[in-house]
Input
Amino acid sequence: MEKPLESEIHERVAGNKHRDKVFAIVGLLSTFIGLLTLAALIGDLAIDGLARLKPHFFTSFPSRFPDQAGILSAWVGTTLVMIVTALTAVPMGIAAGVYLEEYAPKNWLTAIIEINIANLAGVPSIVYGLMALGLFVYQFGFGQSILSAGLTLALLILPIVIVATREAIRAVPGSMREAAYALGATKWQTTSDHVLPYSMGGILTGVIIALSRAIGETAPLITIGALTFIAFLPDPPIAAEFPFVSFEWLWSPFSVMPIQMFNWVSRPQHDFHLNAAATGLVLMVMTLVMNAIAIYFRYRFRRRIKW
Amino acid sequence: MQTNKAEARYLGATSLTALAPGSIAGRKLRERTIEVVMFLCALSSVAITLGIVWVLLYESWHFFQNVSIIDFLTDTQWTVLFENPRYGIMPLVAGTLVTSGTALIVALPLGTIIAIYLSEYAGATLRETLKPILELLSAVPTVVFGYFALLFVTPLLQGILPDLPGFNMLSAGIVIGIMIVPYVSSLSEDAIKAVPTHIREGSYAMGATRLQTSLRVLVPAAFSGIASAYVLGFSRAVGETMVVAVAAGTQPNLTLNPMEGAATITAYIVQVSLGDLPHGSIAYQSIFAAGLTLMFLTLIFNIGGYFLRKRFREIY
Output
């Protein structure tokens, strides 16, 4: 009577332990599916695109002939759009984050702002594009310009910057603020001389991640009317708009690298796909480098500051 | 006087009153100005939401002056750019649901398993190495994923399913699924980690294995957080644009079969935006009606997720 029951228990325990081990393997494999995809993605782009990555690829305009085409107008466009985006989203996002964390009174308006920021994270990016099309392009009359594009992406990444700023500021201990107040500093002096410098690492990490997201964003810029057929234009507008001291470039039509890539990948000819792969490779390198810098900052600041 | 001026400058003189002895007023004014400016920045996020709602409703309202809302919801054809346009949103909604459904079939199990593995099984070093790499998946530009779906995954799938057309929702859905895995896994992992240790220890004390603890104690206890992760994953999948625009085709097609190609709501918006449509035409307005439908879809699932969370919320 005793014996079979005991062996049954042993069997059960062994079975449970076995299943536990199997899951450990399944878990590791699942994680590796993600990593393998990333590797396959980069490998695929490299195999197709690496041969195209010659200096003239960066210095030529798009062309009807795949092997002569380049991404000059696209990377110049990306750079200019990102300047507008960074100059708008970074100060606004940090200011909003500082306000919500250090200044905001606990009332219904603050609650609405907080709920709203959380909800904005779930809004599809193409909807931002539709908003920008209706508001910036037509209502405000900015047209299908670099200014519209930069502002659109700035709104898109604003919640990311705000959330990162708040998290970084929250990590600064209250004793730092109290010490500053005790010496007679005002609220703003405390914030700008103490809280912000201490949280700069976290904020910077968030800003870099937000900008890396903006660089790869395609859909909202197509919606507001970025040029995708810039390959057929003999004289892309960006070149004429130098030097920067005039702000004419803000109003000029544009293309950016993800849109150039989209344009090439939508064509049936295989040769254009190679160009798309090369553009994708450049985009990937930029994204990966930016994320690596962000990870490094996070690691470094976490280690250096000990409260 | 000299020191007074220097002092005033240090205290942040921004107006003439600041030069008055004491300069408390100037200091207060400066503090107040900064606070108001920062408040306006915070308020701008609400303005973004209002802008989105206003633009979508305003343009859609014009659209629905020309197209009856009944036709919009019941017609089975979406041929806005044709000679005899028909305005039935169903084919686009079907395409959207099929691609995001496929994505969720991939992402939910994978994301949940990874979350359990990283939080309960993996050691600290392994976790700290794997997590940032996994999160890079969500940093890859979506158009690159589109390239990958069209020129890598589709040929791969055609090896298994020879009848698969070049543009199909299956490969787009799978790639979106892998793309949103980090969203699902990292939020679920946070939720599982947040379950108090004594609950975990209670289960181990009863002799449960890690797997039993995870599946029967931790996942149910963390379900409200995991449900939020699922809803966010769904929102991402529904709103995903470039992967479907590149890999799933641009032909509206009322089907629930993922092996066919079909346009989604987002792909339609991209297709129209690529052309040169006159501002104010019905086709121009139709992309806002499509965008409004997209927002409604996300809203419905967010509300569903809210009730799901409420129903399963555990209070420790």
